TrEMBL record:
Coiled coil: none annotated. It comes from the Bacteria. Keywords: Receptor. It holds the Pfam family PAS_3. Residues 37-105 form the PAS fold-3 domain. InterPro entries: PAS (IPR000014), PAS-like_dom_sf (IPR035965), PAS_fold_3 (IPR013655). This is Aerotaxis receptor.
Amino acid sequence: MTAVAGSAPGAEREADFSLQDLFFSRTDGRGVIQSGNDVFCRVSGFDWSELLGAPHRIVRHPDTPRGVFWLMWQALGRGEPIGAYVKNRTRSGAFYWVFAVVLPIEGGFLSIRLKPSTPILAQVREVYGKVCAQETAGTLDPKGGAAALEAALASLGFANYTRFMAHALGQELSARDTRLGRIADADTARLLEISTALDRVAIEQRRLLGSFEALQSVPNNMRLVASRLEPSGGPVSAISENYRASANGISEKLRRFVTGRDNLCDLVAREASRALFLMGASRVVAEMREQFKGIPPVPGLDYAAESVRLCELAESGEKALRAAMAQALDHATVLSRSSHEIRRQMLGLETIRVLGRVESGRLRDAGGLGATIDQLDMFHSEIRTRLEAILKLSEEIGTAMASNLARPAA
C-alpha cells in the first residue's frame, strides 16, 4: 500500500493496484464470501482465513452510501446484474475505488471489479459525499439514499440508474484499453456509439417537449386576435378552433411519446442501456476467465469450478444480451413508427397554419394576426427538427441492435 501522492501526514492512504488487476469474489445469497482471487486477497490485506465465511461488508468503506447497496440488492433480488462505483477499505484502513460488476448466479452472487480511470469517478465521489452526509445525519434511510443518488445522477443527464451504469462501464472499459495499450475493442466501440445516440435522444426528447409546451399558448392568442377582428364564428375564429382541436389530438400522442413512465423514448433508452451494460459485463467475464488460467492454487478454493461458473455465466449472459437487444430493437421500431405518425399529423397543422397566413394577408395583418402566425412558424420548425432528430437516432439505435443480433453468438 502507498500513500496518496501529495497527501498530508495522517491522511487516508490509498491501496496500490494496477489497471490489469481484476478483483473476483463470489458470495452466497446473504453476501457471505465463498471464494475470491489473489487480487482480492492481496489488495484487501486480509488472509484467506479472514475472508472466507465473512460477510462481504468486511471491506465496505463508509464513504460508499448505503443507498448504493440498496440499489444493488434491489436489482439482484430481481435477478438482474448491476454495476456501481464502490469505495472499499483494506484491513489496515487504507482505501481503494473499484467499478463493480455484480451478477446473480445460482445460490448467490458473483462480483468482478476493475480500477476506475475516467473523470466519472470525480463526479461520483462528489455525489457520494453529499448523499453520505445526509445518511450520516439521519435524514436519509438506504432507500432514501438511493433516491437521492438517482436524483443527483439525473441532474448530470442520466434518466435512470441503468443508463448511468451502462455509460460508466463503457467509458471505463474504453479508457482501460487505451491506457493498457490494447487494440480498441469493437463491441466497446459500438457500446459507446449507441450510448452517445441515447444521450442525444434524451436531449431531443426534452427539447421536443419544451417546443410543444410553448406551442400550446398560440391557439389562445389566435382566438384573442379573432375577437378583435371579427364577429364570433368568423374565418380567423374557425381557423383557431380547427388548429386547437388538431393540436389537442397531437398533444396526447406527444405526451405518450416523451413524458411519463414507460414513454417510448424512455423504453428505448432503458432496454438499449440494459443491453449495453450486458455487453460490457460479458467483456469483463471473458477477461476474468482468462485470468483464472494463471491463478496459483489456494487451499480450500476450487478455481476450476469457478472457471466453469464463469463459462456458464458467459452463456447465460449472451442469451440475456440478445434478448435485451431484441427488445430494444422492437421499441426503436415502434419509436420510429410513432415519429412518422406524429410528423404526418403535423402536416395537418401545417395546412391550418397556411390558411391563417392567407387570412392574415387578406386582413393586412390587422390585430397582430401575422405575429401569431410567425410564432406558429417558429414552433412548427422546432418540432419538425426535433422529430427528425429522434427519428434518425432511433433508426441508428435500431440498426446497431439489429447488426449485433445478426452476429454469431459468442
